[in-house]
Specification:
about 450 residues, mainly alpha, single chain, disordered N terminus, globular, about 70% helix
Length: about 450
């Protein structure tokens, strides 16, 4: 149990000097060495989760993203956005570590990090700690990815089976069928035991990429009529799609807090850095060759450019559905972990197993119910993501870093503060343009 913060303590006052900071932080206290984890995850297992958390079948949409960004900006921009996301993760986790060291606690969650950063900040921001903590927790409780995944699996099975058999089942039937194996996946509680599922999902996605490359290289690639630079409108679409292709903010603390060697998460090379470098290379390669192959004819997912009557194209669809099914476990872990962290103290210990099982089952029933009621839920969840993802992935790390450094730890010429302001403006740009785009998608859906 984490000890409460004493905001009247001298050590929690804002504006502490380096000397005061040195006295308030026990240099001998290493939070990583004081963590007690029953079943810690290995460094490789964590890497698999982080890779899977960011990389989904959305990689097959990178050719469309590169088309919007142009070949030059598309390639450079993908690497820069990967670096930006890595930096946000570093700011968040590194500040959490400093707070843990200062407060002598072994670990903090995402929401607790924000709350404690505000408590250590200027007096005027302290009341916002609880508000931001609850905002982050409640957002993490929304299983938005799982909703989209269930609809994706059901729609894929519907297209594959109905088009190749005499069946004419509604997509809702396939969503209900997909819910049966999902019950097993979503009852896995330890993140360590979810590694095989994430590994299989990642392997299936790579298989999809290999098959896609087979179609791409069946004919020579062409640079004719391929855009090198984007227009303003197309650049907006590229930035939004490419940045959030790296985003797995909701998994940052669940996976890092369950590591056997949490010091391997950041640093050089570090899991975060290696993961995003690998993703940037893979995203750029698939995106560029896909765009060179199909040009302006490229569709939202490159698989839609493949001859749909061929069996190999059908295999891609099936592999995608199975990969997504195996991915549900890790994304299901986050909202359940958030709910259970807030609720477990109110449940007698002898009932923990049963109550958590029921919570997991109730969540899955709700997800399947919503997916069946609104098969186009992805469009609406996209609006939620467009609004809240920039807040979680960009603004929250900036807020935590800025408050903790306030007022005199921003470095030469306050470059940390200037950098954070520029990053915040970029996040505002993504929020506004992403919201407008999602609203237009909803209007088109019912037009």
């Amino acid at each position: 149990m984490l000890k409460p913060i004493d905001t009247t303590s001298k050590d929690t006052l804002a504006g502490f000097s380096p000397a005061e900071e040195g006295r308030s932080i026990d240099d001998d206290y290493d939070p990583y060495k004081h963590r007690t984890i029953n079943k810690p995850n290995s460094t490789f297992g964590t890497f698999v989760h982080v890779m899977k958390g960011a990389m989904g079948v959305g990689i097959l949409s990178m050719p469309y993203a590169i088309r919007n960004g142009g070949l030059i900006i598309g390639i450079i921009g993908t690497f820069l956005l990967g670096m930006l996301y890595s930096h946000c993760v570093h700011m968040l986790v590194d500040t959490a570590y400093k707070i843990c060291k200062r407060e002598r606690v072994p670990m903090l969650s995402f929401a607790e990090t924000i709350d404690r950063a505000c408590a250590l900040g200027p007096p005027k921001v302290r009341p916002f700690g609880t508000i931001l903590k609850n905002f982050v927790d409640f957002f993490l409780m929304i299983p938005k990815a799982c909703m989209i995944y269930m609809v994706f699996i059901g729609s894929t099975l519907h297209d594959v089976i109905n088009n190749r058999t005499d069946l004419d089942w509604n997509v809702r039937i396939y969503i209900l069928l997909a819910a049966v194996p999902a019950i097993v996946v979503t009852q896995v509680r330890e993140i360590k035991y979810l590694v095989p599922f994430s590994a299989m999902a990642t392997a299936l996605i790579f298989a999809n990429v290999v098959i896609s490359l087979y179609y791409i290289f069946k004919e020579p690639l062409s640079f004719d009529d391929r855009d090198l630079l984007p227009t303003f409108d197309s650049l907006t679409k590229f930035l939004g799609a490419a940045y959030f292709a790296f985003d797995a903010t909701s998994l940052i603390f669940p996976v890092s807090n369950q590591m056997k060697h949490p010091e391997h998460y950041l640093g050089c090379p570090g899991i975060v850095n290696v993961n995003n470098i690998c993703l940037a290379i893979l995203y750029s390669f698939v995106g560029v060759v896909g765009y060179l192959r199909y040009g302006d004819k490229i569709r939202g997912s490159i698989t839609l450019n493949f001859p749909q009557e061929e069996d190999l194209a059908m295999v891609i669809q099936i592999l995608s559905a199975v990969a997504i099914l195996f991915s549900i476990g890790i994304f299901f872990y986050v909202p359940i972990e958030t709910v259970w962290r807030r609720a477990h103290s109110r449940v007698p210990e002898k009932w923990h197993f049963i109550v958590q099982s029921l919570i997991r089952l109730a969540y899955l029933v709700a997800i399947v119910g919503i997916a069946c009621a609104v098969p186009d839920i992805g469009t609406f969840v996209g609006l939620i993501g467009a609004i809240f993802n920039p807040i979680l992935a960009l603004w929250m790390p900036i807020i935590v870093d800025t408050i903790y450094r306030w007022p005199s730890h921003f470095g030469w010429m306050k470059w940390h503060l200037v950098k954070n302001i520029l990053m915040g403006l970029f996040g505002l740009y993504l929020l506004v343009t992403g919201t407008i785009s999602s609203v237009e998608d909803i209007i088109d859906l019912y037009d």
